[in-house]
Every structure is written in C-alpha cells, then in structure tokens.
Amino acid sequence: MMLTGGAALSPRNRYALNFHTSGRGAIPCGAAVRAWTMLMTDTKALRATETAAWADGLLSSFMQAGYIKAEPAILQPAEPFLDLSGEDIRKSLYLTSDPGSEELCLRPDLTIPVARDYLASGKAGKPAGFCYLGPVFRYRGGRSSEFPQAGIESFGRQDRAAADAEMLALGLEAVAAFGIADVDIRTGDVALFTALIDSLDLYPVWRRRLMKDFNRKVSLAQDIEQLTLASGPGHNEYEGVLAALAGSDRKAALALVTDMMSIAGATIVGGRSLDEIADRFLEQSTLKSGALPHDALTIIKRFLAISGDPDDALGQLRALASDAGLDIHHAIDQVESRTGFMAARGVETDKISFATSFGRGVDYYTGFEFELQRKDQSDEPLVAGGRYDDLMTRLGAAAPIPAVGFSVWIEALTRSADAPSASRIGGSAQ
After folding, report:
1. What is the pLDDT of residues 185-233, one digit of tens each?
2. Distance separating alpha carbons of residues 274 and 110, to the nearest angstrom
3. How far is Cα 149 from Cα 387, in angstroms, rounded to an integer?
4. Mind listing the pLDDT tens digit for each residue in 91-138?
5. pTM for the predicted model, two decimal places
6. Terminal-residue alpha carbon distance, the chain
7. What is the count of structural domains for the chain?
C-alpha cells in the first residue's frame, strides 16, 4: 500500500493491512447460503448506517454545546505519538516516511492532532473547546485497523476542577445518548501520586521509575518491591565512584564529580554536562545500594490501597496525610473541589469509583483520569479521558496551558447501545 507522495507503510505493520485484502476463504454454495449472506450484508449495512447516524448526532450535540468542530489531518508526525503516548498506542502505530525522511504515521488517536492544531492557531493560550469525529488507525489483531473516534478537547480553562467535572458529565451524557444508563464510573488522579512522591523526598532515580511505572501501569507493585532490595553482586567499571557516592546527596555527588573531571581536565563527556554526569552516577549508586526506605514503602502501599467513592477516598487520603506528615493537601483539595463541581452538574458522586491506583496507561496524563464502562460489559471503555496540562509544553507551547478532554469509542457504544436518542448534550466550551 502506498500513501500520497509515494511514501510506503512500514513493513513491520504492513501485515495488518493485508488482513483487509486477504481472501475470505471457501464459501459453501447453495441458495440458503446465498440468502444468508445477503441478509448478513444487509444487516451490516443497516448497522453501519445506524452507527454513522448516531455518531453524527453525537457530534452535533457537542457542537450545540459550544464546541468547535476540529478536522485534523490523518497523516501526522510520528514523533509526538512515539514520545508521549502509552505503550499500547506505540506498538500499534502505522508508520511511514516522506521523501525528506521525516517519520509520519496514520493518526492513532485524535487528542494530539487536535492539540497540535490548537497550538498552531491564533487561539493558542486562550480558552477554546473543540469536538471531533473521524477515523483513527491502530493495529488491533483480527479487528479492523480503521475505526471511528469522537470526543472533546478543552484548552486554556483556568478553572481546572470545573473543567474536569464538565468532561465527566459530558461523557456520561454521551453514553446516555446511546441508551446506556447503567455504567461503571472509574476515576483517579495521577497528580495525587505525583504529590505523594514529591513529599517523600525520594532520590530522583526512584521518583522517575515510580512515576514511569504508574503512568504506564506496568509492574508498579513489582518495582516497588525491587527498590526495597539491595542489588545483587555485579561488576561495574565505576565501582569505586559508586561506592564513594553511596548515601550522598546531589550536592555532594556534584562536588565529587567536579573534582574528578577537574583532575582529568574535562567539563563535558559524551555531550553530558557535569550536572548530568553527577545525576547519572548518583542514580546508579542509589540503585546499587538498593533499599527504598521502609517508611516510604509503607506509605506508598497504603496510598495505593485507597479506594471507594470520592468522599470516602478523600477521608482516607486526609488521614494518610495527617498520619505520615505529608504535604499533599493541595492535590487532595483539587479532588474535593472537582467532586463538588460534579455534584453541581447532577452527577451522582456516590456512584463514582475513585482509586488512587487507577490510571489509563497514557504517559501524558497529569491529573484527573476517568473511564466509563457498561456494568455488564466491563472489558472495554465506552468513554475515557483526563487532564494533560504538561502535554501542551511538550508539544511546543511557550507556557503551560491547561488541557482536558475525552474520547468516545463509537464501536463500543454501538455494540452496547439499547435505544439511542437525540438528547442534547450541554456544556461550556470556554
């Protein structure tokens, strides 16, 4: 398959496209089979028509709520997705390159493309809300690699708690528009974990590793346990330096490395500054000496066990902060404020499940996260989203810009739909 401009899809992903062009296999003959085939074809066509109509109605509702329709390009620079998306998206990308060797991809999601277009517009930095509906592309095994995604992205609103609550409320209204009333509301807040790790004053190596695992949802519990154990025997050419740094703080590490480099008559090695070299040595020394402090381990485990409805979870969080002397009150206050705005929008907060360990496995989320799932079909989200303030600067914004949004999985909704309606969705795009 060739893309516009003569760029070919990456061979590592081309097999996924072959799925769509491969033969259907032998089909038995006979009038009954032909009739059945025609019936199934008609049924699929009708279902597709209904799905398109429901999705268009959903988009219209978003626009009526004040959100501007966004139509970002299908072909996108691959770098933002490779650097900033979760592992699941990175593994499923369809990659290509242009004649200038720039790596491109078919958009696997619409959040980053909409954010890039916003930053390139005259609205950058100002409050603005966008909605969208269009195809995205990911390798998904035996399922179609092209599928529709709808959603909303809200930029520049300083009233973060209110904006978070609005996203959840609009997501619930989107699900209700498809006739689905009984849903599990799963929520969390990565800002709480960030505040916890910061308040524990851990070594940078521990902080980075724990945050990375929390965001990606891979081996967090296992990593916590590993960081409590001393490393096994092994050889390192810098064994003496690592031993000298054991138990040192960053200032002492920098002083030692500076002295060593001065003796050698160098200030930069391999493109790294003295600060970077000192940090690297300190990290290796810290990992080699092992032993995440027992008190910190106990606090982290207690934190990750907190769950319940928001009010119950808030009580547990405040008790932990008080018992352990943690400075995480601002993050807790944000959860409380958000919960109040949710209630004001008519969300039954006692039916919300809040867990400190909850996360969606997307690297760029920085705060509130949520998923809506049908209670009797909880294996896939219907709607999912969250806050991603840091993404905007990582995409090139000169200053931080608040950002929050959600995606609607049209396929999952139509599979679960009972009686779609054209109910109007209300919100505040700015």
Report:
1. 999 999 999 999 999 978 777 787 788 778 766 557 666 766 665 444 4
2. 40
3. 18
4. 899 999 988 889 999 999 999 999 999 999 989 999 999 999 999 999
5. 0.76
6. 42
7. 1
Examine residue 22 and state whether it is found in any structural domain, yes or no: no
344 domain residue, yes or no: no
Asked if residues 227 and 289 have their Cβ atoms less than 8 Å apart, the reply is: no
**Which residues, other chains included, contact 105 with Cβ-Cβ below 8 Å and sequence gap of 6+?**
75, 76, 77, 78, 81, 93, 94, 95, 96
Question: Range of 387's domain?
Answer: 11-17+46-196+351-416
Taking the C-alpha atoms of residue 275 and residue 362, their distance in angstroms, rounded to an integer, is 30
Report yes or no on 239 lying in a domain: no
H-assigned helices in 246-306 = 250-264, 274-289, 294-304
Tokens at residue 279, please? 């940090």
72 contacts: CB under 8 Å, gap ≥ 6: 107, 110, 113, 114, 116, 117, 132
CATH number (domain holding residue 51): 3.30.930.10
* CA dihedral sign, ordered 317, 318, 324, 327: positive
Pick from 327, 323, 333: nearest CA to 196? 327
Q: Which residue in 424, 420, 402, 412 sits closest to 128, CA to CA?
A: 402
